[in-house]
């Protein structure tokens, strides 16, 4: 892997926890538990590699339709993460952010999330973003509603709306767009994730299930990214 270019922002669709568990005769929750360990490892590795932002698609707006036992387990793992890892993130000068709708996430978790964000908001190291109760289409609708409300209240002029102005209404208003999207488990779709923000991102699909995706796999993804020529709709520089 070369020293440059290192992507500033890497987003992850962490697919294959259940598949990984099924292949081993384990419960799906065991796969999610192992997946949480990979999140911790990738956070450490990303910081060491010089990545500035990592975003993990932790729970989608559609995931509420999963069995209640699985949803409860995922909420429990989030609770444990907030209890055990935020102090470590803060100690390492990392900033923690959650994007997505608050409801119907349990109120006690909403309070812990707010506390974690407030505790780390001034940190200047790696920014760790969890997309929680997140849906890309819903985010666009929410942004449109916020903008429309500002127009009605004459805070903004409809005629002045452009891409940069509209971007201010997204959950990710203060976060640069991902340079690289990584999806595991050999699934090749974006599943309603960061639809607006991924417009010019590079995509990397790994055949490994998320619980098997570690630092070496991240390095391989970055090596592949470093071979790409990002044109952003233009032509090659040469």
Can you give a write-up of this model?
The protein has 238 residues and is α/β, with parallel strands linked by helices. The chain has a single domain, classed as 3-Layer(aba) Sandwich (Undecaprenyl pyrophosphate synthetase). Helices cover 42% and strands 14% of the residues. The chain has a six-stranded parallel beta sheet, sandwiched between helices. α5 links the parallel β3 (95-99) and β4 (127-134). The protein is globular, with a radius of gyration of 18 Å.
Strand and helix layout:
Elements: E1 9-13, H1 17-23, H2 28-49, E2 53-60, H3 68-84, H4 86-91, E3 95-99, H5 107-120, E4 127-134, H6 136-152, H7 163-167, E5 180-183, E6 202-205, H8 215-225
Parallel strand pairs: 1-2, 1-5, 2-4, 3-4, 5-6
Helix pairs in contact: 1-2, 2-3, 3-5
Structural class: alpha/beta
State the end-to-end CA separation.
23 Å
**Global Rg:** 18 Å
Contiguous helical run count: 8
How many separate domains make up the residues?
Answer: 1
Record the strand order, biggest sheet: 3-4-2-1-5-6
CATH topology: Undecaprenyl pyrophosphate synthetase
CATH homologous superfamily - what is it?
A: Decaprenyl diphosphate synthase-like
Total number of strands: 6
- The CATH architecture classification is 3-Layer(aba) Sandwich
Q: Work out the strand percent.
A: 5-15%
Q: Oligomer, anyone?
A: single chain
Order of SSEs: EHHEHHEHEHHEEH
What number is the mean pLDDT? 94
Low-confidence runs of at least 5 consecutive residues = none
As a percent range, the share of helical residues equals 40-55%
């Amino acid at each position: 892997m070369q020293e440059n270019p290192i992507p500033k922002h890497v987003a992850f669709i962490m697919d294959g926890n259940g598949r990984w568990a099924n292949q081993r005769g384990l419960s799906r929750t065991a796969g999610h538990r192992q997946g949480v360990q990979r999140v911790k490892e990738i956070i450490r590795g990303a910081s060491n590699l010089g990545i500035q932002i990592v975003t993990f698609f932790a729970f989608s707006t559609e995931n509420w339709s999963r069995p209640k036992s699985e949803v409860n387990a995922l909420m429990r793992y989030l609770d444990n993460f907030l209890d055990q890892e935020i102090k470590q993130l803060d100690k390492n000068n990392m900033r923690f952010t959650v994007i997505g709708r608050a409801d119907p996430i349990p109120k006690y978790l909403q309070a812990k999330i707010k506390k974690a964000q407030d505790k780390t908001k001034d940190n200047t190291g790696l920014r760790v973003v969890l997309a929680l109760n997140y849906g890309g289409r819903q985010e666009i609708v929410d942004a449109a509603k916020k903008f429309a409300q500002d127009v009605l209240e004459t805070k903004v002029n409809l005629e002045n709306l452009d891409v940069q102005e509209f971007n201010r209404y997204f959950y990710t208003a203060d976060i640069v767009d991902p340079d690289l999207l990584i999806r595991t488990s050999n699934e090749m779709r974006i599943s309603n994730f960061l639809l607006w923000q991924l417009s010019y991102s590079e995509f990397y699909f790994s055949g490994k299930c998320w619980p098997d995706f570690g630092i070496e796999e991240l390095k391989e993804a970055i090596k592949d990214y470093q071979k790409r020529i990002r044109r952003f709709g233009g032509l090659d520089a040469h």
